[in-house]
Amino acid sequence: MTPGETMAMLARPALSGSLRARQAHKEGIGVTKRQWLGYVAVAAFTTWLTQRLDDLVEEHLADRTD
Questions:
Q1: Contacts for 12 with CB less than 8 Å, ≥ 6 apart
Q2: Per-residue pLDDT tens for 7-60?
Q3: b/e for 24-47, b at 16 or more Cβ within 10 A?
Q4: d(Cα 31, Cα 35) in Å, to the nearest integer?
Q5: What does the H/E/C string look like for 24-64?
Q6: What is the pLDDT of residue 43?
Q7: Rounded to whole angstroms, how far apart are CA atoms 48 and 58?
């Protein structure tokens, strides 16, 4: 994994976690630093999981065409 891929993998979840925290704050829900970190962690995990599942599907389809 290149440094750019690593940054992208961390930047997108941090942004989406921040947006989720801001939305919760707008709804009147207090967001602590710990909750914000939780939002970012969940976003990072789901990003990683989605990428991993996509790779597995591509490998499976490549095996079927060979």
A1: 43, 47
A2: 777 788 788 778 888 888 889 888 888 888 888 888 888 888 988 999 999 998
A3: eeeeeeebeeeebeebbeebbeeb
A4: 6
A5: HHHCCCCCCHHHHHHHHHHHHHHHHHHHHHHHHHHHHHHHH
A6: 82
A7: 15
